[in-house]
Design goal:
It is a single chain. 41% of the residues lie in helices and 16% in strands.
Length: 277
Amino acid sequence: MKKIFIVFTAILMITSCSSNSNSPETKNVGGNNIKSVSSEENNTEIDVSNLSNNKKCWGQGYNVNDKNQPISSIEYNNLYGKYDAYFIGEKEKCMYLTFDEGYENGYTAQILDVLKDKKVSAVFFVTYDYVKGNDELINRMISEGHIIGNHSWSHPSMPDLSDENCELEITKLHDYMLENYNYEMKYIRPPRGEFSERTLAVTKNLGYKTILWSFAYKDYDVNNQPDKSKAFDRVTSSVHDGAIYLLHAVSKTNTEILSDVIDECRNKGYTITKLDI
């Protein structure tokens, strides 16, 4: 009888350990499987049904504090940080370079050359069309230690989509990168900088962190590129603690000033570091 009791107790202990496993949940969205990091950390998914879908179109504005940090970036970090959304970093004397890649305009290879020469790691936010058409550049980004960020499958305004379609815009590209490059994305930048509280929550439920920016300027019009000297002054005078720079890789001006911008920011005491938010 004593032996039976011992065996029964052992079975109960094994069953209890199995049921308390901390392995991450895998979520199926439209036939796509994606591990939900948030479910592993929080054990609960955010209920998005009652969250606001009021569309926000992000821009950091011009008002800064005494540390040259955009006030709006700090305010939005406080408002939306609970959804793992970041509009500025927190580390002193650190800054991050990020590039949006909607299409290739012939400059990304040169940008990668500069980053390699300067030993800088950046984030490249890509769409499916960009990945599909630029296999060599994607492989180079990965092999040279850069981060590939999710910029959605087809570049829609996320608040215009249903929850399911919003998820699909993220998971389709996520799974494509995983299947074709063995690369797992974890950061997203919503197309056009447009988001809502609901879409940030949908994104967090998929285990992603949303990365907006604390500096951007009008560099994206390929037919009206900013003057190099003025652009250099604008970019370097805006540096601040935790700066997240959004630069468009289609910009000829950005490509031409990038090396000098890196040097100047370092001269001001800033470390350009790999995104680790």
